Amino acid sequence: MRATINTAMKAAMKDKHVVRLSTLRLVNAAIKERDIALRSSGGDASGIDEVEIMALLGKMIKQREDSVEQYENGGRLELAEREREEITIIREFLPEPMGDDEVTTAIDTVISTLGASSLKDMGAVMNALKSEYVGRMDFGAVGKRVKQQLSST
Fold first, then answer.
1. What is the mean pLDDT of each run of 10 residues along the chain (153 residues)?
2. Exposure winner among 87, 99, 103, 121, fewest CB in 10 A?
3. What are the angstrom distances between the C-alpha of 112 and each of 103, 106, 131?
4. Which residues contact 103 (CB under 8 A, 6 or more apart)?
5. Residue 41 belongs to what domain range?
6. Are residues 14 and 46 in the same domain?
7. Domain count along the chain
8. What does pTM read for this prediction?
9. Are residues 74 and 135 both part of a single domain?
């Protein structure tokens, strides 16, 4: 994924696409920052793995979605549009998001696989979902659905 991002960044430089280039530089900087934090805490010297990169990209998208909402509430539509453009660029590097039916199936599968039966099992269910479907689902919304499903059993 790092190579893909770097290749896209070089292409953006050649094409003189300013917004795309700045967004990809932000992505690269965030990855490098995580790499440094991992190394300084005694972690893997090669840096964060693909799963962590996808989680980081998901977090960056979530931050930008929050910014869009704040900019729109503040009447700063040009800034909201810039954030939307950045979201589109970052999403290119993530797998296709799951549909509602796929999310439901994934939740049901993980719950049955783990034998989860109460809210005490919610952490284990969420960890399993995050490790398997990182970047493909909104875990804020999924958490509510898992909680609802486990409380009804």
1. 93 95 96 90 80 88 95 95 96 88 91 89 90 82 88 74
2. 99
3. 14, 10, 16
4. 137, 142, 145
5. 2-91
6. yes
7. 2
8. 0.75
9. no
